[in-house]
Amino acid sequence: QVQLVESGGGLVQPGGSLRLSCAASEFTFSSYYMSWVRQAPGKGLEWVSDINSSGSTTYYADSVKGQFTISRDNAKNTLYLQMNSLKPEDTALYYCAARRVGYRDYWGQGTQVTVSL
């Protein structure tokens, strides 16, 4: 059964850092384009960042550019999101998603990030 399991979320003070992980299983992780998407309380989904299958190309929403870094380890079937200088507006449920042309998308269950004093 395909699984994407996010971890690494938690409560952090403004200015702090967190590293999210997304462990993938039961599909060919290295063939999939991966994304991080977040949903703040009471708001819709917001795309955060993408990385291509090899990890050579990354994309970021303007709201996190220079603050977040996406990466992947295809040998470990794991996606990462390093989040620095966190702000209260970064509070959200963070999802990882896997996409591949011609195949269905996969989504994780999410990990909560709360930025507060």
Q: What can you tell me about this protein's structure?
A:
It is a single chain. With 117 residues, this protein is mainly β. Helices cover 0% and strands 51% of the residues. The protein is built from no helices and 11 strands. The strands form 2 sheets. Strands 2, 4, 5, 6, 9, 10 and 11 form a 7-stranded mixed sheet that branches. Strands 1-3-8-7 form a 4-stranded antiparallel sheet, with no helix packed on it. The protein is globular. The mean pLDDT is 97.
Features:
0% helix, mainly beta
- How far apart are the first and last residues' alpha carbons, in Å? 39 Å
Kindly name the structural category. Answer: mainly beta
Which regions are unreliable across 5 or more consecutive residues at pLDDT < 50? Answer: none
Helical percentage: under 10%
Query: Largest sheet, if any?
Result: 7 strands, mixed
The chain-level mean pLDDT equals 97
Strand content: over 45%
Shape: globular
Number of helices: 0
The count of strands amounts to 11
Radius of gyration: 13 Å
Give a brief description.
This protein is mainly β and 117 residues long.
Write the layout of secondary structure elements.
Blueprint: E1 3-7, E2 10-12, E3 18-25, E4 33-39, E5 45-51, E6 58-60, E7 68-73, E8 78-83, E9 92-99, E10 106-107, E11 111-115
Parallel strand pairs: 2-11
Antiparallel strand pairs: 1-3, 3-8, 4-5, 4-9, 5-6, 7-8, 9-10, 9-11
